[in-house]
UniProtKB/TrEMBL annotation:
<dbReference type="InterPro" id="IPR032305">
    <property type="entry name" value="GTP-bd_M"/>
</dbReference>
<feature type="region of interest" description="Disordered">
    <location>
        <begin position="540"/>
        <end position="565"/>
    </location>
</feature>
<feature type="compositionally biased region" description="Acidic residues">
    <location>
        <begin position="542"/>
        <end position="554"/>
    </location>
</feature>
<protein>
    <recommendedName>
        <fullName>GTPase HflX</fullName>
    </recommendedName>
</protein>
<keyword id="KW-0479">Metal-binding</keyword>
<keyword id="KW-0547">Nucleotide-binding</keyword>
<dbReference type="InterPro" id="IPR025121">
    <property type="entry name" value="GTPase_HflX_N"/>
</dbReference>
<dbReference type="InterPro" id="IPR027417">
    <property type="entry name" value="P-loop_NTPase"/>
</dbReference>
<dbReference type="GO" id="GO:0043022">
    <property type="term" value="F:ribosome binding"/>
</dbReference>
<comment type="subunit">
    <text>Monomer. Associates with the 50S ribosomal subunit.</text>
</comment>
<dbReference type="Pfam" id="PF16360">
    <property type="entry name" value="GTP-bdg_M"/>
</dbReference>
<keyword id="KW-0342">GTP-binding</keyword>
<dbReference type="GO" id="GO:0005737">
    <property type="term" value="C:cytoplasm"/>
</dbReference>
<dbReference type="Pfam" id="PF01926">
    <property type="entry name" value="MMR_HSR1"/>
</dbReference>
<dbReference type="GO" id="GO:0005525">
    <property type="term" value="F:GTP binding"/>
</dbReference>
<dbReference type="GO" id="GO:0003924">
    <property type="term" value="F:GTPase activity"/>
</dbReference>
<feature type="domain" description="Hflx-type G">
    <location>
        <begin position="376"/>
        <end position="540"/>
    </location>
</feature>
C-alpha cells in the first residue's frame, strides 16, 4: 500500500510506486544508485516527495508520497527499539528543490529514533542531485546530531551495514556504561513545566524527587521548563519534548513523571509520542499510598481514590490504559486490566464506597468510646516527614513505624500519654499532608481525618530543618481549613530543632508563636508538655508557674520531665 498523499495520481504512477515494494536494498548500501534514480525520476514526474522506510536487512516497509515540501511518516511503533535505542529503520526521501534537511526531518529522526534520515535532491533532468543525511550521535549529555552534505549523490561511499553496526554498538555501550540495567526498578525522568518562580519550581522538584524515591523509582534526570506559554497538547514545548525523548533514550528511562497534573489527553499524547509510561504527581502519590496502606480502611480508601483518578482517563484507546496501569501505576486496583471498562470501575467504586461506609460505622463506634472515656484528645498533624510518628513514639514510648520516606504513616495510630498527677490524654498520629494533596485523596482521607474533628488540640508539627518549612506550614493550614478545622485548637510545634542554628531558634519560635521540640531527644519535650498541661489543666499550671504565659517563654529550660509510663 502506498501511504500519504496519493490522491490525483494516475494509475500508472501508483503502479510505479507500488513496484518499489518489490525491490530490496543491499544491506551495505544506504540506498542503491538505481533505486535512488528511480525515486528522483518518479518524484519529478508526480511533483511530490517520495519517501522510503527501510530496515537494516534492506527491506522496504513503507513507500510514502508527500507534497512538494514534506512527507508524513506513518506510525512505526510496531517496530520496537533495539538495545541501543535505535529503531533499526531509516528514512530516505526526495527533496524536489534540493533543499537541505529541514526541522521536521530532524524531528522525525530524533523522535522516531531512526537509524538515519536522508534526503536526495532531485535535479531538473530527474537525476539524483545532492545527498544530505543525518544521524544521532552517541553522546551522554545532550542530544547531538551529525549531518553530512554531499554535493553529488554518486560521491556516497558509505558502507551502511558497517556504519550502523558501529553506531549501534557505541550507543549500546554508552547505555551499558552509565546504567545498571540489571536493576529492575523503573527509571524515571522528572519533568516540570511551570510558570512560577525558579525557587518554587526547584523546591517542588526536590519534593517530587523525594516522592519518587519513596515510590522506589530510580531518578535519572530532571528536566525543567518555564515557558511563557503552555503547550496544551504536551504541556512541554515540542523542542523540549524532543530533548526529553533523546535524554530518555540515552539514559534508558522507562517512565516520565510530571510535577504538574496532566489531563487524560495530555497523558495519552505524551505517552504516544514518547512510547514511555507517563504519570503525574497525583498518580505518584496515589501509588505511594497504595503501597503503604495497611489497614482495611486505608486500603479501601486508596483503591477508591485510584479508581476515581483512573476513571476519566479511560477514554480512548487501550494503550493509554495499559500505560497507566502497567508498572508503577499498576498497583492497587488489582484485577484492573486493559479490557476493563468504565462500567465495571463504576460498579467497583460503588462497592468500595459501601464498604467504606460500613467501616466508617466501626470508626464512629471507636471514636465514641474514646470520647466517652472523657480524655482529652490530641492529634499530631503536619507535612509528611515532619516527624509526627517519631514524636508520638517518643512521647508514648511506643513503636509506630517511622521512616525517612514520605507517607510512612497512612493509618492513624492512637496511644495514651500520661502526665504527672495521673492525668492522661489520648494522642493520635495521622497521615502526612502534602502540598497539592490530590483532590481525590483529600476526599478519600477525609474519613481518616474526620477524627481530627474530635481532637481537643491539634499539634501542627513542622520540620524546621526543611528550607521550605514556611510553604509546608501554609500547605497544612490550607488543608486544615479545607477540612473545616478551626485554628483555635491549633498549636504550632517546630521539630528537628537539632538541625537548626541554636541562635536563631528562639527568634523563629517567637515569630511563629511555636514551641520547639526535637522528637529524637526526649529531654526536649518540657515546653511542649507544659503547654499541653496549661491548655488542659490550667489550674495546676498556676501553681507551677506564676500564671505567665508559657508561649513567649520558648527558650526556658525544660521544667517537666518526660512522662513516666
Ligand atoms: N534530626 C532529626 N530527625 C528527626 C527528628 N524527628 C524525626 N526525625 C526523622 O525524620 C524522619 C521522618 O520521621 P517520621 O516520624 O516518620 O515522620 P512522619 O511525620 O510521621 O512522616 P509520615 O508518616 O511519612 O507523614 C525519620 O527519619 C525520623 O528519624 C528530629 O527531631 N531530628
Ligand atoms: Mg508518620
Amino acid at each position: 500500500m502506498i501511504e500519504g498523499k496519493t490522491s490525483g495520481l494516475k494509475a500508472g504512477q501508483i503502479k510505479a510506486l507500488e513496484r518499489i515494494y518489490r525491490r530490496k536494498v543491499p544491506a551495505n548500501e544506504l540506498i542503491s544508485a538505481d533505486l535512488a534514480r528511480y525515486l528522483t525520476e518518479l518524484s519529478r514526474d508526480i511533483e511530490r516527495q517520495i519517501g522510503l522506510i527501510i530496515d537494516r536487512a534492506g527491506v522496504i516497509h513503507h513507500v510514502i508520497v508527500g507534497d512538494d515540501r514534506e512527507i508524513v511518516i506513518p506510525d512505526l511503533s510496531r517496530f520496537g527499539l533495539g538495545r541501543s535505542g535505535l529503531r533499526g529503520l531509516r528514512c530516505v526521501h526526495t527533496h524536489l528543490k534540493q533543499e537541505p534537511l529541514n526541522q521536521d526531518d530532524i524531528a522525525d529522526l530524533e523522535l522516531l529514533r531512526l537509524d538515519l534520515m536522508a534526503a536526495i535532491g532531485v535535479c531538473d533532468d530527474g537525476l539524483p542531485g545532492p545527498l544530505i543525511y543525518a544521524h544521532l550521535l552517541p553522546t551522554a549529555d545532550k542530544a547531538q546530531i551529525e549531518t553530512i552534505h554531499l554535493s553529488d549523490f554518486h560521491r556516497l561511499k558509505l558502507d551502511f551495514s558497517a556504519f550502523i553496526q558501529a553506531l549501534d554498538q557505541e550507543m549500546e555501550g554508552l547505555v551499558a556504561e552509565t546504567i545498571d540495567l540489571s536493576d529492575g526498578r523503573e527509571r524515571a525522568l522528572l519533568i516540570s513545566v511551570a510558570q512560577t518562580g525558579r525557587e518554587a519550581v526547584d523546591a517542588s522538584m526536590a519534593e517530587l524527587e523525594e516522592l519518587a524515591r519513596t515510590a522506589n523509582l530510580v531518578v535519572i534526570d530532571r528536566v525543567i521548563q518555564r515557558p511563557r506559554q503552555l503547550n496544551p497538547r504536551y504541556l512541554v514545548g515540542s523542542g523540549k519534548l524532543r530533548e526529553i525523548i533523546i535524554r530518555a533514550l540515552q539514559q534508558r528511562a522507562t517512565l516520565l513523571v510530571f510535577d504538574q497534573d496532566l489531563n487524560p489527553n495530555q497523558i495519552r499524547s505524551i505517552s504516544e509520542i514518547t512510547e514511555m509510561k507517563v504519570i503525574d504527581r497525583t498518580q505518584l502519590i496515589l501509588d505511594i499510598f497504595a503501597r503503604r496502606a495497611q489497614s482495611r480502611d486505608g486500603k479501601v480508601q486508596v483503591e477508591l481514590a485510584q479508581l476515581k483518578y483512573i476513571l476519566p482517563r479511560l477514554t480512548g484507546k487501550g494503550t493509554a490504559m495499559s500505560r497507566l496501569m502497567g508498572g508503577i501505576g499498576g498497583r492497587g486496583p488489582g484485577e484492573t486490566k486493559i479490557e476493563i471498562d468504565r462500567r465495571r470501575i463504576r460498579d467497583k467504586i460503588r462497592r468500595l464506597e459501601k464498604q467504606l461506609d460500613e467501616l466508617g460505622r466501626g470508626r464512629v463506634q471507636r471514636r465514641q468510646k474514646r470520647i466517652r472515656a472523657g480524655l482529652p484528645i490530641v492529634s499530631i498533624v503536619g507535612y509528611t516527614n515532619a516527624g509526627k510518628s517519631t514524636l508520638l513514639n517518643a512521647l508514648t514510648q511506643s513503636d509506630v513505624f517511622t521512616e525517612d520516606l514520605l507517607f510512612a504513616t497512612l493509618d492513624t495510630a492512637t496511644r495514651r500519654l500520661r502526665f504527672p498527677l495521673d492525668r492522661e490524654v489520648i494522642i493520635t498520629d495521622t497521615v502526612g499532608f502534602i502540598r497539592d494533596l490530590p483532590e481525590s485523596l483529600i476526599g478519600a482521607f477525609k474519613a481518616t481525618l474526620e477524627e481530627l474533628e474530635d481532637a481537643d488540640l491539634l499539634l501542627h508539627l513542622v520540620d524546621l530543618s526543611n528550607p521550605g518549612y514556611q510553604q509546608q506550614i501554609r500547605a497544612v493550614e490550607k488543608i486544615l481549613a479545607d477540612l473545616n478545622l478551626g485554628t483555635s485548637k491549633l498549636l504550632l510545634v517546630f521539630n528537628k530543632t537539632d538541625q537548626v542554628s541554636k541562635e536563631e531558634l528562639p527568634h523563629i519560635c517567637r515569630r511563629f508563636n511555636a514551641i520547639p521540640v526535637c522528637a529524637i531527644d526526649r529531654s526536649s519535650f518540657g515546653p511542649l508538655l507544659d503547654e499541653m498541661q496549661r491548655r488542659f489543666w490550667p489550674e495546676e499550671m498556676l501553681t507551677a508557674d506564676d500564671g505567665e504565659s508559657n508561649e513567649q517563654d520558648d527558650s526556658a529550660p525544660a521544667k517537666n520531665q518526660p512522662p513516666a509510663l
